[in-house]
Write a structure and sequence with these properties.
mainly alpha
């Protein structure tokens, strides 16, 4: 049996380091996206999610200029494809959820297969359906490991709601960061130390004594 390319523990640790180093940006951007998605009755949900994915991607790559909270609105560059993606997946999950118990399980089983669709729409400017197909083709190769990864991502991102309700604001960003880290490893071959770390300034050497 071929060894899995998915390092569940390592990728979650990498996602946590990225989150910890950009705590304020990730939390506020995710909260802003969620609020606008809710207040627009879901119409802006796709674009806002695309904006958060873009912020996470750029931050993980250490791109300059550094992403800002307002960059979440750049998700509107992908408005139509992001909206269609969210609608199609939403309908699929809703249809599956109509079947008691089995529907909930089906939703969990589908999630790993489409987890890369939004990053592909944002990063490679793919249309929603080719992005879903490409996500499926890549994810099926590592399905079991990605299923475990997504289950843990869901548990971590929802932990705040379990522990203290509004604490979900603090943990929800991990639900986006973990899939983006996985995307970079599987589609880009990012190394485990891909998270940018700011180096401490080096003190200038004292001039040599004559």
């Amino acid at each position: 049996m071929a060894e899995s390319k998915v390092d569940v523990g390592g990728w979650i640790s990498e996602a946590f380091e990225l989150y910890k180093a950009n705590f304020g940006l990730m939390c506020v951007a995710t909260l802003l996206a969620a609020l606008l998605g809710v207040f627009s009755c879901g119409i802006l949900a796709g674009a806002m999610f695309a904006g958060v994915v873009m912020i996470v991607l750029r931050t993980s790559r250490g791109e300059e200029p550094k992403p800002e909270i307002g960059d979440v609105f750049k998700g509107f560059d992908f408005f139509l494809q992001a909206l269609l993606l969210v609608l199609v997946l939403g309908v699929a999950y809703a249809a599956a959820g109509m079947v008691p118990f089995i529907g909930a399980v089906a939703g969990i089983l589908i999630a790993p297969l489409v987890m890369f669709a939004m990053p592909l729409v944002v990063d490679r400017k793919m249309e929603f359906w080719p992005a879903i197909v490409a996500s499926y083709e890549k994810a099926k190769e590592e399905y079991v490991s990605l299923l475990v990864l997504m289950l843990l991502a869901s548990l971590i991102s929802g932990l705040g709601a379990i522990l203290c309700g509004l604490g979900v604001i603090l943990t929800a960003p991990m639900g986006t960061i973990i899939p983006v880290v996985a995307y970079r490893h599987l589609f880009e071959g990012a190394e485990p130390d891909a998270v940018p770390v700011e180096e401490a300034p080096v003190a200038p050497e004292a001039p040599a004594q004559a």
